[in-house]
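Thread amino acids onto this structure.
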């Protein structure tokens, strides 16, 4: 019988064919919430012990994270959670602007009534979480809002690409909450996007999405250590 994992870490359980997937999810979550901090180095054995599983599924999950640019294996020294740079954030948000703004314009004219209702439900949950201060749940509904909207644009590769870009920043910078922006402010930006979508104003919806992404990107650049000159970017 192995010892229980330390506080804050959950034993993943059994089921060999799903353990690697579950290990990947737990590692992703631990990196996002800061339990596995950028710059820190861990051994595979150490991580396996933290999650109460064998080394094999943990190694498989880490190899996938390495392919995504989240961690790096260092010869005979374990695996390091990579830190980000302002340049990384700039590249990610340049791509998101190039992809997500026109996708919002396209989706505006294609959204069905049930998809609009689904977006409203996500906003309702975001409002509830903002009132309760439930940041993690709020951000999960934020992700679903964006993905519901992007799905309406009709390009699944686009959805997957933006999910990967978003995860890259969440892994290595984190959230803008508490850095001159609260959940209510983020909610208001989404509500403006929703208002434009309801009115079927594609140009206004795209502009609202652009403003939301620029606000988020600029704050994340600051968190990543960007100077004033780097913040004076042409986001168009």
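Threaded sequence (236 positions):
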């Amino acid at each position: 019988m192995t010892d229980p994992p330390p506080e804050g870490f959950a034993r993943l359980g059994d089921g060999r064919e799903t353990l690697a997937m579950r290990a990947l999810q737990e590692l992703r979550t631990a990196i996002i919430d800061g339990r596995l901090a950028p710059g820190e180095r861990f051994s595979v054995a150490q991580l396996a012990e933290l999650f109460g599983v064998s080394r094999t599924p943990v190694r498989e999950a880490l190899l996938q994270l390495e392919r995504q640019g989240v961690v790096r294996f260092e010869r005979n020294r374990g695996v390091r959670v990579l830190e980000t740079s302002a340049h990384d954030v700039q590249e990610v948000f340049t791509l998101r602007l190039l992809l997500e703004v026109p996708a919002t314009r396209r989706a505006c004219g294609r959204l069905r009534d049930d998809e609009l209702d689904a977006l409203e439900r996500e906003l309702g949950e975001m409002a509830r979480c903002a009132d309760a201060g439930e940041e993690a749940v709020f951000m999960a509904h934020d992700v679903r809002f964006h993905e519901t909207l992007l799905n309406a644009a009709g390009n699944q590769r686009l959805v997957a690409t933006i999910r990967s870009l978003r995860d890259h920043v969440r892994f290595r910078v984190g959230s803008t909450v508490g850095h001159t922006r609260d959940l209510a402010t983020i909610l208001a930006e989404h509500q403006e996007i929703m208002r434009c979508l309801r009115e079927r104003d594609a140009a206004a919806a795209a502009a609202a999405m652009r403003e939301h992404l620029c606000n988020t990107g600029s704050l994340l650049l600051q968190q990543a250590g960007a100077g004033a000159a780097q913040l004076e970017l042409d986001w168009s």
